[in-house]
Amino acid sequence: MLLSVYYAVLGTLALFGLHRLVLLLVLRLARPPAAPGHLGAAGPKTEAPLDGFTADGAAAPRVTVQLPIYNERYVAPRLLAAVLDFDYPAERLEIQILDDSTDDTGDRIEAVLAAAAAQRGCPLPTVRHLRRPEREGFKAGALAAGLSQARGELIAIFDADFVPGPCFLRRTVPAFVDPGLGMVQARWDHMNRRSSLLTRAQAVLLDGHFLVEQEARYRSGCFFNFNGTAGVWRRRAIEEAGGWQFDTLTEDLDLSYRVQLAGWRFALKTDLAVPAELPARVNDFKGQQHRWAQGTAQTMRKLLARVLRSPARLRVKLAAAAHLTSGFCYPLLVALGLLLLPAILVRQESPYLLLWIDAPLFLLGTAAVAGCYAVGQRRAGRPGARAWLEVPLAMSVGIGLSLHNSAAVVVGLFCRGGEFARTPKIPADAQDPPAQYRSTVVWSLWGEATLALYFWICIAAAGSSGRWWSLPFLYLFAQGYSLMALGGTLPRWGRRVRAPWTPPTGR
Q: Can you give the pTM of this predicted structure?
């Protein structure tokens, strides 16, 4: 029975690894789909000019920029200053500050607006600072409330910790000359990539997501999702799909699938990178990942059957199923880690079984994941030994999240909605941040510490019995759980104070 469960778990994880290999193959062979105003990564570096809509640009699409904010005193002013600097006709631009804050974030925003009005020699775009009496629906509720008052036919959305460049709209809006295009997503970049081991690992994970997973889905014509920020929507696509809904914690993933099921197409622009802050504290990072894992499970429960019943092609359905069920990898990783050493001990007399069954399945799972992250680093312009050294670190962090996120997946399967706990961003040199910005201890800490100890014991047992082949896999588990446990108790562990971020020239 133990071996049956072990091979079922290992085989399922190998299937997810096979899906990643397919994504790598697609990335190698397929080209982005050709479309009017195409903005794919393989397309030309200079896009159609904004005045492609009219001869003089006077009738460029009206754009509403939505900035959903909740207690972001350290980063919201920076975002607003960046958006005010957009190179777009002011008379065709509206900015909505969707401010649900309960601290002094609103005051800081008003100070930025006052300073901009005093310093600008040209007229400012229309800016509306909207406050709700209740935070109903959290971010999705704020976006829905803002949409009901928006004047734009296109809706650009940025989270508080992002800093889009002045040319963002000029490099995305021209794609909407295609009447069937519902959304354009830009890639995330990372201001504080080098701040700590944690931020380095997150950067690898996100680069793999955008530059491999999302790009491969886009190139193959499969469904992919808006990532909640750094994207532009066609308003009609949102409304025709039922608008923003808050019965999941990943309102962006939910809306993305509903819009694509309604027949709209998406475009991905990976050569336009929008810098953002990565969570610098382990417990904040775990909270963010918990929300994403729970929301993905909720979206799967809500929409997977609808996707499978849709008239989409079989490969689109299979890719969507792999995407929406990816959260199940977390409980499978926990189970595999606990079963690994007992399964080895049970088969002491069966070395050929290990060689011909276990080894290929393990390699399919781990090599495919490592390959995705390594290709992501190469496509992000980070080739070389350092990028390869950060790939195992990212894999360990993913494993270390498995216990915490397993609980999120279970909750997502049985519960709708939930509290949208924001991920607070504070600078490294912040002195005495308010209580709502401080990191709190996460419940899974003791479980992760126990699992870390268990895997270090497993490493010692495997080494003393000569089972050297298992050591790399056991080490990934031991390191991952140790990083989560240590990082949860030592907030500044692995962290160094960095110089203030400055935008690159010509961003």
A: 0.91
